[in-house]
Amino acid sequence: MLYSPRTPKPPKVCGGYPKSAVKLKPTDKQILRDTMKKLENKKELFPKHNQRAKEMIENSNIKEMVNGPAHYGGVDNPYEVIKVCEAWELDKDAYLFNVVKYVARAGKKDPKKELEDLKKAVFYLERKIKNLEK
């Protein structure tokens, strides 16, 4: 659209407000920077909540279920699936990583699901093969 001297140009908009309405003082800019830093490191914003969450995890079995669960050999197991896959650089290939994961863990968590785990491994292996054949 062309503007004539009689047609005023619309104000430049910044976040829904005219730019002239959004003027930050140096102190406001510093407050914004500080807030952004705190948001990046959320621990500073909610120290009581973070401490309580940490206590809850330490006093429960959540920690063991996430970080080296016993049914997969525990934290000290040098042959834990994720450690082996990282050593073999399979963490860069989701298909092969899952093949190794499901074969190695077959029946460990739930013996009744061993066949299901092995079928999942076959699924990922077949998918990898199909992608290579394209």
Q: Which SSEs are present, and which pair or pack?
A:
Blueprint (H helix, E strand, L loop, with lengths): L12 E2 L2 E2 L7 H15 L6 H12 L3 H5 L14 H7 L6 H12 L8 H20 L1
Antiparallel strand pairs: 1-2
Short description:
The protein is mainly alpha-helical. The protein contains 6 helices and 2 strands. Among the domains are: 35 residues; 57 residues, no CATH class.
DSSP, total strands: 2
Low-confidence stretches: none
Radius of gyration: 27 Å
Q: By helix and strand content, what is the structural category?
A: mainly alpha
Enumerate how many helices there are, as a single number.
Answer: 6
How far from one another are the termini? 51 Å
Sequence of secondary-structure elements: EEHHHHHH
* Mean pLDDT, all residues: 74
Shape: extended
Biggest sheet strand line-up: 1-2
* Largest sheet descriptor: 2 strands, antiparallel
- Fraction of residues in H or I helices: 40-55%
Beta content: under 5%
How would you characterize this protein structure?
With 134 residues, the protein is mainly α. The chain is built from six helices and two strands. It has a two-stranded antiparallel sheet. Helix 5 (94-105) runs antiparallel to helix 6 (114-133). The two termini are 51 Å apart.
